[in-house]
Sequence to fold (163 residues):
Amino acid sequence: MPPRAFFKIPILAFLAVTFNGCAQPESPPPAGMPSGKSPLAATATSPYAGGKVNFVRDIKPIFELRCINCHNRKVLHGRMSLESRETAFGNSPTGAFIVPGNPEASVLFQNVVAHKTRENAMPPVGVRPLKHEKDLIYAWIKEGADWPAGKSGRIKPTQIPLE
Ligand code: HEC
Fold:
């Protein structure tokens, strides 16, 4: 087993337990956790109506709902953090997370559309991004991956206490 895969087992086990809304839908979630079978509700992001993608309106809710509780500086220390533009634009061993203008070359997009059986499929547990969310992420990167600096561009982890 390659060393990277070896490391991933405890991380994923931890995350699967933390995201117990996915693993054990019948047990009540702890206070503060979203209730029900899917904390990543299917209807929580708006459909893609075409037109220019707006980061705050279209992309931020997807990252908030499906990514940020793992991809922040505390949970995945040293990995891609989606907390702000500054922390999200980095490189993985296989390439840049986000290549403005080129979704196919962006590791973030590759991972979002990877088949669920692939080890890089994101998120690794729980509900996969919906078709319109993949389309939005594709269009957003294609249009240049605009991500405002400052408060409107910041995304906070919501479900996992940071301390
Ligand atoms: C349940 C936790 C979890 C969720 C939710 C999650 N990821 Fe990840 N993600 C991981 C882990 C763990 C890795 C590291 C995998 C490895 O060992 O290579 C990773 C790796 C990545 C990478 C490669 C960059 C890096 O830092 O290694 C990208 C890009 C990525 N995820 C994007 C996303 C996106 C986009 C979403 C939301 C659609 C998402 N992830 C949701 C856990 C998660």
Notes: The first helix runs from residue 3 to 18. Residues 42-153 form one domain.
